[in-house]
Amino acid sequence: QICLSLVKLLFYLAHSPLGSIVLLDFQPRQFVMVDGNLKVTDMDDASTEELSCKEDNDCTLDFPTKSFPLKCSLGGKCEGINEKKNLFNAYRYFFTYLLPHSAPPALRPLLSDILNATGDLQYGINETLRAFEKVLHLYKSGLYLQKRPLLLKDYISLKGFRTVEGEDYKCWPSYSHLGCLLSIHSAEEAAAICNSHSQCQSFIVTQQRTWTGRPLALFQSSWTDLIPDTNTVIYIKRSASSGERL
């Protein structure tokens, strides 16, 4: 969410009515999240000036660890230097820390492609935004789940019940520090996640939703102490419930 919101912001800056705007003091502390959108807190160091040049050799974009040769336009300006500077700063301050860690495994190669392409400035801001929107579409639609074995048949569902709240096993990247609370597309995906956790014996699809509209599921190491709750469904592994009375 943070990276996509940043890319949308940089897309606007690259195509603003004033021209391409560069953020000269590009640091994470210069941004805040407001209602799920990233905002710049300080525009004092923003500029629409693009570096003047006489030849391509005048247009090297330098960073502490990398340098990028750019073209000198017929108008005597380094082509796209503001846009590319913003994009590489987004890569080194945001993408490298946030993109690799929290996506479903099937989407990680696509995010890795974005990471590599922006890190080498192979993508401009237009291509980067399109790549992010493609990943978002796959994520929201559940298309990344195609050709998976059906695992929900291995679970018994009980509507109108949940377990007593309390601390349980933890997982990454959980929405709760008390247990394992993850975003899912469907109960079928939740069953696959539960099967991949050695501790998991049951899960509950909650009424909570993420910013993309996906429900949150709570994964648990037991399923005892059930209490009535008309808004939830608990799914219990058949292997865990064998020999028990439901």
UniProtKB/TrEMBL annotation:
Database matches in InterPro entries: FAM69_kinase_dom, PKDCC
Pfam families: PIP49_C
Molecular function (Gene Ontology), one example: non-membrane spanning protein tyrosine kinase activity
Gene from which this protein is expressed: Pkdcc_0
One Gene Ontology term, aspect cellular component: extracellular region
A biological-process GO annotation: skeletal system development
UniProt keyword annotations, A-Z: Kinase, Signal, Transferase
Name under which the protein is recorded: PKDCC kinase
Leader peptide range in chain numbering: 1-19
Keyword Signal: yes
Species per Swiss-Prot/TrEMBL record: Pardalotus punctatus (spotted pardalote)
Superkingdom to which the source organism belongs: Eukaryota
Keyword Transferase: yes
Segments forming domain FAM69 protein-kinase: 2-116
